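Mods, move this if it's the wrong board.
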Amino acid sequence: MIFKKLPYLTLSMVLGLSSVHAQSRVDKPFNDNWQFYKANNSTFFTDFDNGTKYFESQSQWTKLEVWEDIQLPHTYNREDMQKDRNFFEGKAVYQKKFQMTASDKEKRSFLKFEGVGAVAQLFINGNYIGEHKGGYGMFVFEITNSVDYDKENTVVVVTDNKSRRDIIPINQFLFPVYGGIYRPVHLIQTNKTGFVVTDQASAGIYIRQKNVSSKSADVSVEVKLETKEKHTQSGELLVEIRDFEGKVVQTEKQAVKISPQGVTYVTQDIKMKSPRLWDGVRDPFLYSLTAKLMVQGKEMDAVKQPLGVRKVELIAGKGVFLNGKQYPMFGVCRHQDREGFGSALSFEQHKEDFEFMKEMGVTTLRLAHYQQSPEVYALADSVGFLTWAEIPFVNRVSYYENDNAKQQMHELVKQNFNHPSIYIWGVHNEVYSKTADEQVPVLSRELNDIAKTLDPDRYTVAVTGYNVVDRQENLSTDVQGINHYFGWYGGKIEDLKPWAEKVQQNFPDYKVILSEYGADGNIDIGQELLEQPKDVVSGKSFPENYQTETHIKQWAAIEQNPIILASYVWNMFEFAVPAWNRGGVNARNLKGLITFDRKRKKDSFYWYKANWNPEPMIYLANRRDNKRTNASTKIQVFSNLSNVVVSVNGKDYKAVKGENDKHWVVEQVQLQKGENRIVAKGENNAGGKAVGGKVAGSKATAANVLTDEMIWTLE
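Not the wrong board. Structure tokens:
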């Protein structure tokens, strides 16, 4: 496999947006010219749960000079939640003026929100339209009958990110729930007859696959149709499959009758011959599938979705197989926030995250611990990351969250059903019970049943923070996920290997994933000697070298133990945790391989790049531990080259392999007082193009030799 830089991708390319069907369905951005007011939980806003009371005082608050002009996406916590636990948590109001036209009367109009943290109440012209609970799923409300077609309209959205025991996640402890309309909003307009828009913000069509091989594939398209006309509509369902260049490769059609009552369900079966398979990072080939509804030869509606033809199998003790071939599961977890922006990210920022992951050699991605932007799933489709998607049933239970957890599981599966990158649905993370009869195991079974009923063709997973495979909370799903930080929250770094061997011995038929592992590392704290931090909960010094050592030893153990079907580094990027003050940076989880601002890559990043990305590279580790007191020392090099040699002040030392064949070590190197110039070089026998990081030189000094260098100072 060759891990190349992402090709030029635009938002329209990734999401498959097209203006071809502008006459039948219009999807317009609804993100400009909003106003925002943070309520600060004043008594003025205490009656939001009652829309009538709220709008009795409308004449008062609309005249207040407190409104801030903004563009979406927007969060009102982009700074305070990244500083400390003294952040704003509560209600804020968004409003926008907009016009409809006379011709819009013949259409149906909807507002689609990609994400609002965490509760949203929608009002149109003073009329209460509805409420959505949950900060991560999309939602749609129809506004056809509430807008005025002759004068200006006002949309008001009241948001609230205050923790509630009936909405998951029920607290802000592991990660912040940023408030506001932090993802884009769409105004969708359709004809009176078309695909259902309000099916929990799903596409209204569901693509299923069976009997997939390079010879053929059985594809079925399940569609939901409705009409607001008074009579049954006779028409034709037309399904087109196009290749990546836009060429039609297959067309199927059938006659349909759409009842004016309820919803009409139709399934179109398609037999694809010799399909080009979606093969992860090896070949993320995407078709597009467009379902069109025709009435009397006129296109009434059209929905375009990605189609990646693939087959995923998890085989206990052997690995993950994509299209019948074993697939390398080089995995990381990703939180959606970024320093200075919170969760209100642009497509280019999402794309940049994927660039970093691609450079490191990632092949699989866990999107923790909640549904992320539709742009993220589309990027995963485009670059070929097998993806784990989950709901935020995480960390703590209140015994009041059952209904909302089920709602969010429905949303997660329905809204992301057609993404070929998704291979597994997560039902919970680190929630516990004492017996199998209590709330968590029972709710987990129900969540698993929702996922498997909606989508029987994908796997499900539940995650425990104990290093025990058969806990009662996890046994309802297809796969057991284990979050365990050997050498951090207990034990030693080396404990991972004997643990995996014991799992292999005792649970050979279980599908097991190491869903989180790692250690905190502050890139600005260097340390000459390797020492395990004594207090990982309230300690203020987490040197980077301990994080590096954790990943060196634990990846070397993971790759040798096939009982671990996949593993996911916690975390690709540092992220905000308002309740924490650890490791020398307040409100920060420092387990990321890249800093929160995305500007600096830690040593661990280059360790995985050497192991996962076959592009030739060499990197001198511990470069920030550059203040030395011991003249005799050890030097570590991360490289996928051969014959690695380390030169110290002109003296050559031949490196030997350490924990694995990408880990090169020279012991008892002699330093001199003052500055020591250290150069590592290796032979690129593979002949591939040399690509190095910005910090590491990895520059070619000859046709087949790459070098890196650093300075250590002996005091």
